[in-house]
Amino acid sequence: MADFIPVTEESLRAAMRDPRYWRSGHPEREDYNRWVTEGWRAFVNEGQGKNGVVQVRAYTRTRNGKMEQVGAHTRADPPGGDAKDGPQSAAGQGSYARPVSDSPGTATPSPRPGITAASPTLVIFVGGGGDSKYRNVYDFQSSSDVIRDLGHRQSAYFGHDEANAIMTRIANEPQETRIVLVGHSWGGDTAAQVAATLGQRGRPVDTLITVDPVGRGLSDGFFQRIRAGSREWVNIRAHGAATSDFSDFVAAVGGTYGDGPRGHATRHIEAPVTHANFGRLLTSPDNTGVSGFSRILGR
């Protein structure tokens, strides 16, 4: 008989801290993520979790070297359907509403001496907690349009729980390589943490782009360390979309950076796009016509 769990904000937050939810390669991660997602949907659909229960979806797992079946039923999706906000747009595609503004009084910093748009460049994309399922970041960075636009620039993809692997990859690059670090949701927090750490080690990244980042332990001191670890920091906030979706709710519960980076980031863009739509967030321009993607290209 399958276990039941009360649908409360506390229980679901605890589930998101479970290694089965966030650890890449965990044999139960896909099914556990699906279960947590259904729990949040039930929480919203049942009037903030009052008297609601959700049952674990049936799946097969390996425990102590033996296969075992975990029984369950699937709760129906609430109105609005999947959290994925449609197909991701490649660079330059689509027509997007103008964001509110960028940070007042900021300008694009000068690159390191000797670094130009033609310099060897490594662009690292870091997916969020749901990217293993929805592939918002992975599909964007591997699309033919983006590969074409990146041109001579190398690109690599990592999960949000691979901070050490990201730092190793950067450490193996020659000093003359321009490093661009792009992270979405929890991956944005990972990218920020990596930049802050590398700054303390004396090798700040050239460009950090955090796309509606989600994390905990936020403070002015943390934002200052992020800024010190990046010659340029572009923060993109999903804010002001005509309609919100389930991904916006999950991001809010997880702890979005929100307006916190304003005044610390060299450019703060507020894009009227939902949290899940990484491609549109990254390509939405500010009121000067600059987007996160244009800064990847050094424009």
Descriptive account of the structure:
- The chain is of the alpha/beta class.
- The protein folds into 2 domains: about 5-70, no CATH class; about 120-295, Rossmann fold (3-Layer(aba) Sandwich).
- About 35% of the residues lie in helices and about 20% in strands.
- It has 12 helices and 10 strands.
- The chain has helices spanning about 10-15, 20, 30-45, 130-135, 135-140, 145-150, 165-170, 185-200, 220-230, 245-255, 280-285, 290-295; strands at about 5, 55, 60-65, 65-70, 120-125, 155-160, 180-185, 205-210, 230-240, 265-270.
- The strands form 3 sheets. The protein has a 6-stranded parallel sheet. It has a two-stranded antiparallel ribbon with strand order 1-2. It has a two-stranded antiparallel sheet with strand order 3-4.
- Strand 3 (about 60-65) and strand 4 (about 65-70) form a beta hairpin.
- The termini are far apart.
Task: Please render the helix and strand layout as text.
Elements: E1 4-6, H1 9-16, H2 19-22, H3 29-45, E2 53-55, E3 59-63, E4 66-70, E5 121-126, H4 131-134, H5 136-141, H6 144-150, E6 154-158, H7 163-171, E7 178-184, H8 186-200, E8 205-211, H9 220-228, E9 230-238, H10 246-254, E10 267-271, H11 278-283, H12 292-296
Parallel strand pairs: 5-6, 5-7, 7-8, 8-9, 9-10
Antiparallel strand pairs: 1-2, 3-4
Helix pairs in contact: 1-3, 7-8, 8-9
Keywords: Hydrolase
GO molecular function: hydrolase activity
Region (Disordered): 64-117
